[in-house]
Write a structure and sequence with these properties.
The chain is built from 17 helices and no strands. It is mainly alpha-helical. It is elongated, with a radius of gyration of 23 Å.
């Protein structure tokens, strides 16, 4: 499962030592020191083919620099050249001198996973874990490999461990949502998937990763459309109790408990927001709730509100 780009970091490379080395290299159409900076900028700008050309020039000039090869790997990975990305990340990982640095190994694992080499990807993640202990990103990456094998139980274990360390780690949250959405016919999985898609869409990583954001929006919408009869009946019962002579505060509490069962339920969110005012919340809080829902249901006019 594609992990959010925020789990793989762009890295900078310019230093006084590299600038000095530049004067010892041969001529090229783009000077090596310029290829480094321009390649990095092209990478940040999303011009991956240009970044690849420039960073390949830089790699020839600085064959022992781990960061140059890492950025070349990133350019190839984001440009969907997975085999070339694997080669660049592998080179970067062998050149890396810092004992705790795992970026190249993570990139290597992701390139291998995208090529369907789940065994090789798992090996890279395990090597990264040996270097830096059990970080949430690494555990979530291992989970993605296990999902590729079809080992959902093992994947769930890794994701639970990652989320216990950091409940809002974007890679772990996203992969957990995907895992449970694949078994959404079961009550617990539908509840868990809806919660995690909802959480992911509220994280900065969702805006930084359009592909994963679209996947999460689609997943939340499908859960809303395909709610199980069992879950819908329980929600309906809780809504009836909420409106059975309760105070506004208690009604809101009960509606919130119903939402805990299914955060993909746009109609229930509309009810909840409508009752915020009755429970004494100010208009600013109501508008904030609408904006939060607009991030999850961008095509639903009920949640549109003017910018603050």
């Amino acid at each position: 499962m594609p992990m959010p780009r925020s789990s793989l970091r762009f890295r900078t490379v310019l230093s006084a030592g590299l600038l000095a080395l530049a004067f010892l290299t041969g001529c090229s159409r783009v000077p090596p020191e310029e290829a480094v900076s321009r390649g990095q900028q092209a990478l940040l700008d999303g011009d991956y083919e240009l970044a690849i050309d420039l960073l390949e020039t830089a790699a020839k000039a600085y064959p022992d620099n781990a960061v140059v090869y890492y950025n070349l790997g990133m350019a190839n990975l984001l440009g969907k050249h997975n085999r070339a990305a694997e080669n660049a990340f592998l080179k970067s990982s062998t050149l890396e001198k810092r004992p705790e640095e795992t970026s190249a190994l993570q990139g290597l694992a992701e390139a291998r996973r995208r090529r369907g080499n789940f065994e090789g990807a798992s090996a890279a993640y395990r090597a990264a874990i040996q270097k830096s202990y059990r970080k949430p990103d690494l555990l979530a990456g291992l989970a993605a490999c296990e999902m590729g094998y079809g080992m959902t139980g093992t994947a769930s274990g890794y994701l639970n461990e990652a989320l216990a360390i950091d409940p809002k780690n974007p890679v772990a949250v996203f992969n957990d949502a995907i895992l449970h959405s694949r078994r959404a016919s079961e009550y617990f999985n539908q509840t868990r998937a809806a919660k995690q898609f909802f959480v992911f869409l509220g994280l900065p990583a969702a805006d930084e990763n359009p592909e994963q954001r679209e996947t999460a929006l689609r997943g939340l919408s499908e859960l809303n459309k395909n709610r199980s009869v069992e879950l819908q009946e329980e929600i309906d019962e809780m809504v009836m109790r909420a409106y059975s002579g309760n105070t506004p505060a208690l009604r809101l509490k009960l509606l919130g408990e119903a939402l805990d069962l299914d955060r993909s339920n746009a109609e229930l969110w509309e009810r909840f927001i409508a009752n915020l005012g009755y429970a004494g919340y100010p208009q600013s809080r109501i508008d904030e709730a609408r904006r939060n829902c607009a991030r999850r249901f961008p095509d639903d006019p009920r949640f549109q509100v003017s910018a603050p």
